[in-house]
């Protein structure tokens, strides 16, 4: 069942729940088709059998359209995941180029990257197995090389480029 491929990679349980509902509907459609074929061969066509046939055809159409929509949703989710991965890679390249421009040492790069990820001084110190004072000194050196005064400006330096385009109602702040 092609429409079920990609469910394992999907985030959250919504696609799996939709696939389960689709499977239940398909099972019901198979049951109703078998029932109609059985009644058709035994009793011949009647008004009630024609109505059951129409309802069953509507159910089959719903299963087909549901499968197509689920497949489209999974494809869209994969496209979004790929876009996010690409943007993440590009952002990493932008950060590394800026670190090169500032001539950060390897240790300063590590500290700067952890600071951008939102870790505080104690967490950076623990992650790098360094003293908090060392991390504070490295952050001060990073800020000096970047020509900024603190963590908020440091993070804003990178976020500003992301927000430079596409702001709704941008008044060129």
From TrEMBL:
Source superkingdom: Bacteria
GO molecular function: DNA binding
SUPFAM superfamilies (alphabetical): C-terminal effector domain of the bipartite response regulators
Record field: transmembrane: 16-37, 49-68
GO terms, biological process: regulation of DNA-templated transcription
Keywords linked to the UniProt accession: Membrane, Transmembrane, Transmembrane helix
One Pfam family recorded for the sequence: GerE
All residue ranges annotated as the HTH luxR-type domain in the record: 101-158
Signal peptide: none
InterPro entries referenced in this protein's UniProt entry, alphabetically: Sig_transdc_resp-reg_C-effctor, Tscrpt_reg_LuxR_C, WH-like_DNA-bd_sf
Coiled-coil stretches noted in the UniProt entry, renumbered to this chain: none
Protein name: Transcriptional regulator
Species, as recorded: Cypionkella aquatica
């Amino acid at each position: 069942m092609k429409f079920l491929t990609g469910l394992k990679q999907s985030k959250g349980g919504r696609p799996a729940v939709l696939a389960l509902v689709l499977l239940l509907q398909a099972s019901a459609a198979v049951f109703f088709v078998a029932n109609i074929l059985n009644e058709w061969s035994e009793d011949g066509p009647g008004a009630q059998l024609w109505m059951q046939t129409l309802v069953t055809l509507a159910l089959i159409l719903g299963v087909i359209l549901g499968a197509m929509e689920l497949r489209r949703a999974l494809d869209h989710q994969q496209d979004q995941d790929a876009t996010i991965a690409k943007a993440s890679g590009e952002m990493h390249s932008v950060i590394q180029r800026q670190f090169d421009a500032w001539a950060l040492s390897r240790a300063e790069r590590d500290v700067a990257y952890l600071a951008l990820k939102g870790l505080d001084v104690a967490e950076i110190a623990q992650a790098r197995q360094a003293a908090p004072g060392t991390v504070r000194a490295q952050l001060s050196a990073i800020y000096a090389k970047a020509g900024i005064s603190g963590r908020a400006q440091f993070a804003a330096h990178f976020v500003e480029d992301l927000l430079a385009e596409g702001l709704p109602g941008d008044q060129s702040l």
